[in-house]
Each structure stands twice: as C-alpha cells, then as structure tokens.
Amino acid sequence: MTAVRRYPVLVALVVAALFMVLPFAIVAINAVKSPAEYSSNGPLSLPHGFYLDGLKDFWQRVDYGQKLVNSILISGSVAIGAAVLSVLNAYAIGIGRVRGRTWVLAFFVLANMLPQEALVYPVYYLCKQAGLYDTRLSVIIVFTVVQAAFGTYLLSSVLGQFPREIIEAARIDGANKWQVLWRIVVPVSRPTIGVLLVFFFIWTWNEFLLPLVMLISNDNQTVSVALGVLQGQRLMDATMTNAAALLGVLPAIVFFLVFQRTLTRGIAVGAVK
Amino acid sequence: MTATAERGGEVVRRHHSRTGHPRRPHSSYALFLLPGALAFLTVIVVPFLMNTGVSFTDWQGVGSPKWSGLANYRELMGDSEFWASFRHSLFMVVAMAAVPTVLGLVLAAALFDFVGKHFGTRIAAVLRACFYLPQVLPVAVAGIVWSWILAPDNGSLNALLRAVGLGSLQQDWLGDPDIALYSVMGVMVWVQLGFPLVVFMAGLQRVDPQLYEAAELDGAGWWRRFGHITLPQIRPEIYVVLLWCTIAALKVFGAVYVLTKGGPGGATDVPSYFSFTTFFEKTQVGYGAAISTVLTVIILGLALVGLKLQTRAEDAEEGLRA
C-alpha cells in the first residue's frame, strides 16, 4: 500500500482516539478555571491562570481525603481477601480435582454473573439485623465473596494446567497439601494472582450500587458513592461538578498508568479461558 | 480445553491404580473448599433465596411478609413501567454489546494488522491505551463527566456545536425525553469500547502472521482479510465479549443513576434502577424482589445459553482440528 493511502487511515484512527480522551482533556482544563472565567468564556476556552480554589473547596466540602482512605481500605481488603479465597477454591478444583468440580465451577461462574439487585435487599436487611449496616466491613465481606467467584473461575483453569510433576515431587519429598499450596503453587502462580489483585482492587473501587445502599454516613462512603450521590442530588454548580469529575478521574488515571501492562495482560488471560 | 480433559483422564486412571492406598484419599482437597463454600452460602445463596422468597410476598420491609403467591408477577405483566424498563435494556444491549463489539473488531484489526505493521507496535499500543482509558473510570465518575459535558446551558457539547456554527443542533441532551436515551447510549459506547478492543487485540496475537502474508500475496484486500482471517480466528473472543457485555448491559445501574435517575419521565429507566427505586424509595420490597428475580432469570438463562454455545463452538473446532 502506498504512503498516500496509508496516512488517511492512521489520521482517522488518531482522531478517533483523541475523541476518546477529549472528555478527560475538557475536565482537566476546566478544573483550573475560576467560576467567573468559566461563565464568561465557556467550557472550551483555555484557562488564563491557575485557579485551584474550586478543587480545594470541593475537597474540603466532601472530605475527599476520608473518601480516598475508605476506598483504599475497602478495595485493598477485598483484593487480598478475594485472592486468598480464590486460591483456596482453585487449589481444590484445579489441582485437587474434587469430585463434581465442573458443577462447583459452574456455580461460581453463575454466582459471579448474578445481578446484585437480586442480593441487595436481603444483604441490606441481614446486615441491619447483624449490626453491620453502614460499616465498611459489610461491603468488604460481600465484595470479597463476589470477586472470589471470578477469581476461582479464572485461577481454576490456570491451575488445571499446573505441571503435576512438580507437585508429585514435592509430595514424595514429604510435603503435605498445605505446604504444597503455599510453597509451590502460590509462588509459581504469582503472575496470575497479581493480575487478580489488580482487577479486584479496581473493580471494587468502581462499584456503585451496593456501597450506595450500605454506606450512608459520610465517614464511610467511597469515592464513587460520594461523587455519584452529590451529582444525583443536582446540588452542584458547573465548577463543583468539574472539580468532582477531576478528583474522581485522577485515581483512575493513576491506576491506569501504574497497572497498564497488568490490565491488558489480565484481560487477555480472562478472555481466552 | 483438550489438555485439561486429557489430564483429567490421566488422574482418574492413576487414582484407580492407587485404590489400595486409602492413606491419601482424593477428596481431602475438599477441605480447601470449605471457607469458600461457607462464605458463598451466607453472602450469595441465602440472600438470593430470600430475595426469591420475598418476591412471592407482599412485604414493605417491616413486619412479617404476607404470602401473596404470584400476585407480584401478575402485576408486573401489566405494568407499563416494567415493560418500558426492559425495552430500554434492549437499547443498552445495542449500546454496550453490539456497537462496541463491531467497532472494537474493526478498530482492533486496524490497529493490529495496519497500524502495528506499517507504523510500529508502539503507536498501536498508545492508540489502544486511549480507547481503553474510559474502562478504568468508575461508572459514577464517567456519569459526572458526561452529565457536565452534556449540560444544556454551559455544557461542552453545546458550546462545541456553537463554536463550529452548528448552534441549531444544540439540545438538552439529558433532559429531553426524546433524546435522553440516545445520549445515555452514546455515553455507554464511550465507556464500553475499550474492553472488546483490548480483548480482540490480545486474541489477534495468537493468529499466525503467515495467514495474513499469504492472503496479501494472493491479492486479498484489507476488508477481505478482515472477513476471512480476523473474524474466524478470534471467534471465541467474540463470543465471550458479546456474552459479558450483554450481561453488563442488562445490569447497568450507576450510569443511569448519575446521568438521569431514570428520567425524564422514565425515558431512561432500566430494570436495575427500577428495582432499586421500588426497594428503597417506594419500599415495595416484594415487588422489587419480583423485578430483580425476573432480571436474574433472564441473565442466568443468557449466561447458560452463552456458555453452552461457547463450549459447543470450542468442541466443534477441536473436532475439525483432530
């Protein structure tokens, strides 16, 4: 193909890609505008100065630091808990080949696909009875189990291909099942477990329905819920909305830059199986 | 898949020859399933059964539920709000599964087979990252960004239309009942596109490059290669993506909550939002449970059919190869 015909296609693809990131750019340029500048020049003009009071006001108003701590605490605990649960399940299914494992696996897949709407009211009711309502622990428990369903499914198929010779050798050397799991299977599967940790963390960070129902007090809310609720109430002016958008977008971009490789690799692992 | 099956057979055989050794019974691995099984029982199975049970009652969330049989389901059949929410779900399937899959296929093939080859894999990777970026955003935050861009007065989209002289096309994108659903659909395409793209590009990496080279030598144009090589080669990925995205579309909640709250006038209501308001705003818990049960049956039915189709396709392919 000649260069003359090649470049228009590349240009079209680049334009499409720019269109995808345009909203991020618009958020970024408006976050540093003063309300006066925004209302007189509109959202598309480039900022004249660096106005950070809007961000500062918003940060203090929603106590954004606390929301970040909550989100990190919840997502981190879920990622670790769900990874441990997935490893235990997948060890029994993928390596132990317990009887009826196809059914057990099908059960985990379906549990992961279940809409949360079908769990939300009983979970809300049971947590109220158990005194767990409006605690971060309630959300941690539920998401640990939900994410472990996916982790079990993925890790089981990976462990199903685990080289049996290594395990047999360890058994002959006198290692029991517990030792085989922690000294051999877990270290060898570290790349897949790493992918799971990243995915569990980000998925939990992005969850909305259940945290919205369960975490009503300001001190317990996550970033997603705090911003979503504010927006839903339509109490914010344009500058506030923009500050909210930027502060919500920033952690996602940080994850993206830090974990880009893991994310794309993880999607590939997940899709092929 | 074959590898797993073969190894499974091997284990069974080995197990047979070892029946004289009761010392290490095969099933003792089941102990490792115990924590997972208990956790699933309390967090998923019991609440799910409770929800199904409540759907047969007339319950307001306080006091003891009164059995009402199929009354909730009968009422649903005649509830136009319910039917509208499911109709909107079909629009969401178009916006979150059909369109992203088609666009994702073309973009993935273009980035892999064209940009990657002629301009280097680094440029292809950067472009892929741009398309994928919205996927890491919490959907509530994506909703905030877009509701602000689509705002009627000082929103960026209307400002952009004015700037390029198309001011007559300005709309109240989320506030006009005739347009709101399409606006939400547009946002969802933007949110969703990166997922199929990344999956398909990963899938294309296992395609033998010689196939493309041979086709190019035979004079096949880009679209021919796309139809005859790309599509058949990544069919498993297409199945998976369509299934996952359809299920995600049926479950969509956060975006609707933040963008429109189901409005204006129910124009963007979807089943999950409908059940949410029935549970927590109208406190008709029995009715809400019936809505979410119907949604669950549809999703699980779809998942079962999808998984079956997928394994059948894989079996057929393996049969051909054997």
From TrEMBL, chain A:
<dbReference type="InterPro" id="IPR035906">
    <property type="entry name" value="MetI-like_sf"/>
</dbReference>
<comment type="similarity">
    <text>Belongs to the binding-protein-dependent transport system permease family.</text>
</comment>
<dbReference type="GO" id="GO:0055085">
    <property type="term" value="P:transmembrane transport"/>
</dbReference>
<keyword id="KW-0813">Transport</keyword>
<feature type="domain" description="ABC transmembrane type-1">
    <location>
        <begin position="68"/>
        <end position="259"/>
    </location>
</feature>
<keyword id="KW-1003">Cell membrane</keyword>
<keyword id="KW-1133">Transmembrane helix</keyword>
<feature type="transmembrane region" description="Helical">
    <location>
        <begin position="7"/>
        <end position="32"/>
    </location>
</feature>
<feature type="transmembrane region" description="Helical">
    <location>
        <begin position="180"/>
        <end position="205"/>
    </location>
</feature>
<dbReference type="GO" id="GO:0005886">
    <property type="term" value="C:plasma membrane"/>
</dbReference>
<feature type="transmembrane region" description="Helical">
    <location>
        <begin position="103"/>
        <end position="125"/>
    </location>
</feature>
<keyword id="KW-0472">Membrane</keyword>
<feature type="transmembrane region" description="Helical">
    <location>
        <begin position="68"/>
        <end position="91"/>
    </location>
</feature>
<keyword id="KW-0812">Transmembrane</keyword>
<dbReference type="InterPro" id="IPR000515">
    <property type="entry name" value="MetI-like"/>
</dbReference>
<feature type="transmembrane region" description="Helical">
    <location>
        <begin position="240"/>
        <end position="259"/>
    </location>
</feature>
<feature type="transmembrane region" description="Helical">
    <location>
        <begin position="137"/>
        <end position="159"/>
    </location>
</feature>
<dbReference type="Pfam" id="PF00528">
    <property type="entry name" value="BPD_transp_1"/>
</dbReference>
<protein>
    <submittedName>
        <fullName>ABC transporter permease subunit</fullName>
    </submittedName>
</protein>
TrEMBL record, chain B:
<dbReference type="GO" id="GO:0055085">
    <property type="term" value="P:transmembrane transport"/>
</dbReference>
<dbReference type="GO" id="GO:0005886">
    <property type="term" value="C:plasma membrane"/>
</dbReference>
<dbReference type="Pfam" id="PF00528">
    <property type="entry name" value="BPD_transp_1"/>
</dbReference>
<feature type="domain" description="ABC transmembrane type-1">
    <location>
        <begin position="86"/>
        <end position="306"/>
    </location>
</feature>
<keyword id="KW-0812">Transmembrane</keyword>
<keyword id="KW-0813">Transport</keyword>
<comment type="similarity">
    <text>Belongs to the binding-protein-dependent transport system permease family.</text>
</comment>
<feature type="compositionally biased region" description="Basic residues">
    <location>
        <begin position="13"/>
        <end position="24"/>
    </location>
</feature>
<protein>
    <submittedName>
        <fullName>ABC transporter permease subunit</fullName>
    </submittedName>
</protein>
<feature type="transmembrane region" description="Helical">
    <location>
        <begin position="90"/>
        <end position="114"/>
    </location>
</feature>
<keyword id="KW-1133">Transmembrane helix</keyword>
<feature type="transmembrane region" description="Helical">
    <location>
        <begin position="179"/>
        <end position="202"/>
    </location>
</feature>
<feature type="transmembrane region" description="Helical">
    <location>
        <begin position="238"/>
        <end position="259"/>
    </location>
</feature>
<feature type="transmembrane region" description="Helical">
    <location>
        <begin position="28"/>
        <end position="50"/>
    </location>
</feature>
<dbReference type="InterPro" id="IPR051393">
    <property type="entry name" value="ABC_transporter_permease"/>
</dbReference>
<keyword id="KW-1003">Cell membrane</keyword>
<feature type="region of interest" description="Disordered">
    <location>
        <begin position="1"/>
        <end position="24"/>
    </location>
</feature>
<keyword id="KW-0472">Membrane</keyword>
<feature type="transmembrane region" description="Helical">
    <location>
        <begin position="285"/>
        <end position="307"/>
    </location>
</feature>
<dbReference type="InterPro" id="IPR035906">
    <property type="entry name" value="MetI-like_sf"/>
</dbReference>
<dbReference type="InterPro" id="IPR000515">
    <property type="entry name" value="MetI-like"/>
</dbReference>
<feature type="transmembrane region" description="Helical">
    <location>
        <begin position="126"/>
        <end position="149"/>
    </location>
</feature>
